[in-house]
Amino acid sequence: MARAALFDVDGTLVDTNHLHVVTWWEALRQAGHDVAMHDIHHAIGLGSDDLVTHLLGEDRDRDEDGELTAAHTALYGTYFERLPPLEGAGDLLHELAARGWRIVLATSAGGPELKALRRAIDADDVIAGVASADDVSEGKPAPDPVQRALELAEADPAQAVFVGDTVWDMKAGRAAGVRTVALLAGGIARADLEEAGALAVYGDTAELLSQLDTSIFAQMERGE
Q1: pTM assigned to the model
Q2: Is the N end or the C end of the chain the one with fewer CB atoms within 10 Å?
């Protein structure tokens, strides 16, 4: 079966986590909720419904969930034309594809947001597929997005690596039975990522690319 390199997008390939923090903060503020940006930051990576639950609790007024999500979408959408890719993101995907890895994205983004993210990454020529929020019934930290990405890659978990930047990514990858690599670019502490299951941690995509020959990817290429 193919070797699969599975990637989260926000905070992993595109520098958007703090944009999400600010726009979720504003959406919540407009609805009368005072939520610390630190708490929002640690919820980034969850799907919208799970993020709101994580921040406001199960006992919240669920009737306003749709308004909160719509407000965040509208605020975040103002950045779609200028989302910044992380340094080396596209180059990393191209290098892995050249080494025979099948590239699939696993993200909670969908629709116009996903199109904007893919445009920022600028590597559609090597992306074999995308497991988006539209494709699964349950988002990270459930394994569903990673399992869907494995299906798209036609790969066995033992032949896959999942790269992400949040504890939710690491937990989803571990639950799906794949090797997990974390990046610090999303702003989450190394210790938290390692506790959640990261087997290796790098600063960002550029650092991973520069150390690719000593990484888990290279180990798997050598059959280790």
Answers
A1: 0.96
A2: C
